[in-house]
Amino acid sequence: MMARPYCVVVALLLLPELSGFGEGASNPGFVARITRKGLEYARQYGVAILKKELSTIRLPDLSGSFQLSWVGSVNYEFDG
């Protein structure tokens, strides 16, 4: 089952080498500019994805207590 992702990775690594084989290109690649508008779009997209994923996660209810020397006894309760 792991052979398929491995083959895809190898193919992606070899793709730039094969595409510039006959051209004699010494520095194949591309240039990208990251703008404030692009960063804002990425942030909005990322927040939307995180909200969607977090809405599907269910956490168990937790409660307990512990001792801190400088505060004393601490009780906590987490209700999902």
Tell me what you see in this structure:
- With 80 residues, the protein is α+β, with helices and mostly antiparallel strands.
- The chain has a domain at 30-56.
- The protein has two helices and two strands; from the N terminus they run H-H-E-E.
- It has helices at 3-19, 36-56, and strands at 62-68, 72-78.
- The protein has a two-stranded antiparallel ribbon with strand order 1-2.
- Strand 1 (62-68) and strand 2 form a beta hairpin.
- The longest helix has 21 residues, at 36-56.
- The radius of gyration is 25 Å and the shape is elongated.
- 0% of the residues are buried.
- The mean pLDDT is 78.
Elements, N to C (H/E) = HHEE
The pLDDT mean sits at: 78
Span from first to last CA? 37 Å
Approximately what portion of the residues adopt beta-strand conformation?
15-25%
State the shape.
Answer: elongated
Radius of gyration: 25 Å
Question: In DSSP terms, counting alpha (H) and pi (I) runs of 4 or more, how many helices?
Answer: 2
Poorly predicted regions: none
Based on DSSP secondary structure assignment, what is the total number of beta strands?
Answer: 2
Q: How many strands, which pairing sense, and closed or not: the largest β-sheet?
A: 2 strands, antiparallel
Structural class: alpha+beta
Task: List the strand order in the largest sheet.
Answer: 1-2
